[in-house]
Amino acid sequence: MTRYKYAQLQRWILNRAATALTNLKLRPLLAGLKEDAVLIDCGANIGDITARFLATGGTVYAFEPDPLAYAALTARFGQHPRLQLFQQAVWTEDKKLPIYFHKDRTGDEMDFTVSSSLLKQKKNVKDESQVEVEAIDLEFFIRKLGRRVNLLKIDVEGAEIEILHSLIDKGTYKKIDLIVVETHETKIEGHDLLVAQLKQKLKALQIDNIRLNWL
Which residues lie closer than 8 Å to 159 by C-beta, 6 or more apart? Predict the structure, then answer.
């Protein structure tokens, strides 16, 4: 087996394991939601969690910047009446940013799209493999939504730390019942310190509706 084929197989296995674990952890979080719930999926990829969100009967907003993953997302859900799709990265301001692809991605390998990141220092992406995407200020989006958000999921391959600081500093986290976040300190050098500082901030401010490393 070539190194490339091995990397593909490894990524396939990791993705399926993560999906199974996510489904288990989501079950109690979604069980009590009503049909008027508002859910936001940041880093929707091909929509596995988006589908679970839609199954609650609520309104779902899903963000996915990777062009290949977004194409699969739109093909999967089409014009779903309770879903709004955005081909955008979530960030702390509205601007165009480069998104970096997995180092082993050469074309349309869907499994590698889960690794796409705004951070070029992420260990499994490569600087020369990138595309410019639209980024949206997530805090502003939520504040202007005009509705309470019941569940916000953020899994954006390293960009979540800055986004959480924005939500906290501007008080917007108070408009959200629960925020579940996947941090990526094992994949980004120096990120462990940033995560530790964020944890200290959450503790100091007694914020209990943000769950880090929920997977």
Answer: 89, 90, 91, 117, 118, 119
Where does residue 206 fall: left (phi above 0), alpha (psi -120 to 50 degrees), or beta otherwise?
Answer: left
Question: Residue 185 corresponds to which amino acid?
Answer: E
Report pLDDT for 10: 55
Considering the chain, what percentage of its residues have pLDDT values greater than 90? 73
Helices (H), 32-121: 48-54, 67-77
Task: Provide the mean pLDDT of the chain.
Answer: 90
Contact present, 191 and 212 (Cβ < 8 Å):
no
Is 176 within 8 Å of 208 (Cβ atoms)? Answer: no
For the chain, give the number of residues. Answer: 215
Distance CA 31, CA 194 (A): 32
Distance between CA atoms of residues 39 and 51, nearest Å: 11
Query: Could you report the per-residue pLDDT of 143-166, keeping only the tens digit for each?
Result: 999 999 999 999 999 999 999 999
Q: Mention every residue, 6+ apart, whose C-beta is less than 8 A from residue 174.
A: none
